[in-house]
Amino acid sequence: MYKINETTINLIKGDITKIKNDAIVNAANNTLLGGGGVDGAIHKAGGPEILEQCKKIGGCPTGEARITVAGKLPSKYVIHTVGPIYRGGENREAELLYNAYYSSLKLAKEYNLKTIAFPSISTGAYGYPIYEASDIAIKSVIEFIKKEGHILEVNFVLFNDKDYKVYEEKLNQKFN
Ligand code: AR6
């Protein structure tokens, strides 16, 4: 557990669909119509209500975020964001990934949500190297907390040991 002012940042290993927070974040694509990875898992576990709302929203640009109900999931809302596809790092990937985290947190604040869980956006099918991506994720979250406050708990939910260890190392560097 890491603390900034009133906010705690936690690392959790496991499946984000099992988390009970005000919102969990989905690593979606521009259509918001579902896919594989964490997106597939969220729609599968949450049921059709999420997709119905996504269809009405009609898509989401990279780096932005949209909100829906969470259907059968234990959390209240799903915040769908779209990370960049990694194409070597010279195509604004870092900025877009930063924005994906930041805009998700902004939306959470708008809805007065206090607890939020993030998967590791863009580091699966979208190919963003975990070492670089975790730095950006942590930076974006810390800057949001310092500037905007409001959120009480940010949970990074990592699906595998390797990603968890990378996040742990980075957070320990920042906080110790
Ligand atoms: N809980 C937490 N993390 C998970 C889960 C889960 N249930 N399942 C997978 N992960 P990815 P992206 C991890 O590919 O790279 C989709 O098809 C996974 O191990 O889900 O942003 C979308 O529709 C990895 O570390 O998302 C898009 O088309 C991380 O989540 C595209 O993939 C992200 O991997 C988005 O690609």
Q: What does this entry look like structurally?
A:
The chain has a single domain (2-175), classed as Leucine Aminopeptidase, subunit E, domain 1 (3-Layer(aba) Sandwich). Helix 4 (130-148) links the parallel strand 6 (115-118) and strand 7. It is of the alpha/beta class. It has helices at residues 37-46, 48-57, 93-110, 130-148, 161-175, and strands at 2-4, 7-13, 23-28, 65-69, 77-82, 115-118, 153-158. It is built from five helices and seven strands. It has a seven-stranded mixed β-sheet, with helices on both faces.
What's the quick description here?
The chain has about 180 residues and is an alpha/beta fold.
Low-confidence stretches: none
**Can you tell me the overall shape?**
globular
The helix content is 40-55%
Q: Which cofactors or ions or other ligands sit in this model?
A: ligand AR6
Task: State the end-to-end distance.
Answer: 12 Å
What CATH calls the topology is Leucine Aminopeptidase, subunit E, domain 1
Number of helices: 5
Strand content: 15-25%
Quick one: biggest sheet? 7 strands, mixed
Which class best fits the helix and strand makeup? Answer: alpha/beta
The averaged pLDDT comes out at 97
The level 1 CATH classification is: Alpha Beta
The rounded Rg comes to 15 Å
- Structural domains: how many: 1
